[in-house]
């Protein structure tokens, strides 16, 4: 091997070890195309190296078995923070190099995983079509046997601790690693994932520009398992903790026939986002393309108050509205929650 190739390999190795993955990829591209050091990188539809695992500050680069960039990539990784480690999957849209794109963090529900949640919501297909990243943190079986996020435990309800801190740390890591537009980072979830999304909205309003909660619960609605079961059955009562206020733009979906998480939780979550804001909301009634009825209530943004949308899904149970049959807990007959969440998200931008 000649000196030029040795130099490029050494440069790429040093850049990878220091976490400068974009520059490492460019160096490898120059190597593959026979360019000398310092030459402009040649665009490539299939980078030879792509980040596969990032565990705390340790990065492994896997050059085999990665989907071509022209098709987008759905890559696996692991992240550690404050003694907690969780795996994740990240959808990287094709043609993203050089662009600062939005990021949507998707938190699955109980008995789900990232692949299942991605299939049911169809979010990866939308990410490829619209140009954004999707991050799916995965709950560990040893943290919760049903793969639920522990939204109801006090140690997982605060800034700087537990699962919220780990998800926030992972989000910031992905933002830095991929050059994400930090003003367009959003979080959404279903059921327990929706409840954890609400917790993140309260704990980390400096990271996220908006939150979407589907069939979830307000932040801080319970502090133990017994309270969680009570709140899920009937909504918050005087016997359960006061909920925490959300200051971010918020969109909520909840079926009024949900027997797993009572619809009162959707109403209470909306109330926690609206606060004491005056003004009459805009109310509209409609049908999904498949004929399922809904009521959409909108509180537009006003000074000191973020925008809030509430979709009451009539006759719908505990499932992602408009979801795909390939995933679990989906209702293909309902209004397209994925499309409506993204439409709401794209109208919001953080003040970072």
From TrEMBL:
Keywords: Hydrolase, Signal
Provenance organism: Rhodoferax fermentans
Record GO terms (molecular function): hydrolase activity
SUPFAM superfamilies per the UniProt record, alphabetical: alpha/beta-Hydrolases
Cellular component terms per the entry's GO annotation: extracellular region
Region (Disordered): 35-54
Protein name per UniProt: PHB depolymerase esterase
InterPro entries, alphabetized: AB_hydrolase_fold, Esterase_phb, Plant_Biomass_Hydrol_Est
Keyword Signal: yes
């Amino acid at each position: 091997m000649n000196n030029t190739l040795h130099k490029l390999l050494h440069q790429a190795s040093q850049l990878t070890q220091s976490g400068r993955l974009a520059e490492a990829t460019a160096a490898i591209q120059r190597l593959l195309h026979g360019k000398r050091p310092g030459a402009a990188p040649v665009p490539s539809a299939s980078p030879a190296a792509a980040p596969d695992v990032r565990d705390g500050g340790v990065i492994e680069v896997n050059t085999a078995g990665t989907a071509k960039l022209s098709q987008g990539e759905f890559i696996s990784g692991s992240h550690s923070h404050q003694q907690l480690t969780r795996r994740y999957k990240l959808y990287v849209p094709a043609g993203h190099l050089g662009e600062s794109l939005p990021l949507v963090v998707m938190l699955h529900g109980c008995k789900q995983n990232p692949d299942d949640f991605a299939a049911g919501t169809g979010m990866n297909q939308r990410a490829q079509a619209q140009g954004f990243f999707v991050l799916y943190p995965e709950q560990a079986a040893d943290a919760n046997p049903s793969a639920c996020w522990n939204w109801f435990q006090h140690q997982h309800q605060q800034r700087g601790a537990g699962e919220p801190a780990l998800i926030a740390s992972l989000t910031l890591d992905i933002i830095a690693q991929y050059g994400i537009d930090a003003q367009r980072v959003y979080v959404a979830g279903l059921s327990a994932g929706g409840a954890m999304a609400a917790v993140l909205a309260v704990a980390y309003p400096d990271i996220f520009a908006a939150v979407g909660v589907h069939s979830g619960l307000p932040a801080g609605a319970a502090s133990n398992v017994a309270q969680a079961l009570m709140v899920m059955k009937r909504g918050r009562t005087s016997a359960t903790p006061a909920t925490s206020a959300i200051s971010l733009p918020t969109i909520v979906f909840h079926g009024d026939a949900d027997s797993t998480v009572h619809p009162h939780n959707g109403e209470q979550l909306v109330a926690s986002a609206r606060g004491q804001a005056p003004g009459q909301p805009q109310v509209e009634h409609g049908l999904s393309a498949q004929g399922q009825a809904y009521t959409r209530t909108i509180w537009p943004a006003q000074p000191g108050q973020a925008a809030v949308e509430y979709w009451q899904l009539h006759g719908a149970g505990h499932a992602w509205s408009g979801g795909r049959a390939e995933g679990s807990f989906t209702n293909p007959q309902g209004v397209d929650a994925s499309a409506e969440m993204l439409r709401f998200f794209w109208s919001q931008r953080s003040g970072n």
